[in-house]
Amino acid sequence: MFTTPQESHSHSLETLTQFSSHIDFLKSIKKVCDIGCGKGLDIRYWAELTDQDETNPQPLNIKCTALDKNQMTSAEVDLPNIRSIGHDFNTNLSPINSSSQDIVWCHDTLQYAYSPLDLLCEMNRILDPNGMLYIGVPSTVNVDYGRFTSYCMNYQMFTFTLPQLMYFLALAGFDIKDAYFKKEIRVDYIEAIVYKNSEPLSRDTNWGDLVHQDLVSESAREIINTNSFLSDYGLLTQWFDGTVYDYRNHGGRR
């Protein structure tokens, strides 16, 4: 989706810097894991966070784990609170203990997984019971001027729609009812912030089951009850900065 690590990190910063106004939230974080960390630019941001004291800012010293297929070099891991792990996330996340992370950060990685649902279930496993997952994925299927268009980047195994991503997250045991989803009009990217809700659900769970268990939002429930499936048409989502996305208006802000 992004051509360089710097380009990817610049996109991440749009969300990362929004967290800066939530200092009490940041102070509560003890451990963060970046899955598919690349050169480690995102995890470095977490590692360098301070308490924002205007006269004498002190480091929060968040324990940061950077996991990717290739371990980061010593030059890239020059902060004492960053641990780099070289491990293929397509197998599992076995080097990371269960229920050990407050936040899992997964920006521009899930599309490279052979099984996105299996990887999401592993992220559930390593998160604390109240842990938070940030996920950013490409959505490279569009209709422009009545013409269906799509594309696939190198090594990209999947692209995602908003309903599909929501379904994967729900099956993996994440709360999609009181969650944050962002999909800008004509931006080929979806972002989500969700919290661990339960252990992964049965793989034969359907949309009706999710409605029956009260695991979807009001707008999603109305769509599912009408169609027996979830469509983005009529869906309302909100980002954590308060922005509301009304997909009756082709994904535009309301």
Describe the structure.
With 254 residues, the protein is an alpha/beta fold. The protein has a seven-stranded mixed beta sheet with strand order 3-2-1-4-5-9-8, with helices on both faces. Strands 10-11-12 form a three-stranded antiparallel beta sheet, with no helix packed on it. The chain has a two-stranded antiparallel sheet with strand order 6-7. It contains seven helices and twelve strands. The longest helix is centred in the first third of the chain and has 12 residues, at 5-16. The mean pLDDT is 92. Helices cover 24% and strands 27% of the residues.
Compose a concise summary of this entry.
By secondary structure, this protein is α/β, with parallel strands linked by helices. 24% of the residues lie in helices and 27% in strands. The chain has a single domain (5-253), classed as Rossmann fold (3-Layer(aba) Sandwich).
Query: Could you give the count of β-strands?
Result: 12
Rounded to an integer, what's the Rg over CA atoms? Answer: 18 Å
The CATH class, by name, is Alpha Beta
| Tally of domains | 1
Indicate the topology.
Blueprint: H1 5-16, H2 23-27, E1 31-35, H3 41-47, E2 63-68, E3 82-86, E4 101-107, H4 116-126, E5 127-138, E6 141-144, E7 147-150, H5 162-171, E8 174-182, E9 189-196, H6 207-212, H7 218-227, E10 236-238, E11 244-246, E12 252-253
Parallel strand pairs: 1-2, 1-4, 2-3, 4-5
Antiparallel strand pairs: 5-9, 6-7, 8-9, 10-11, 11-12
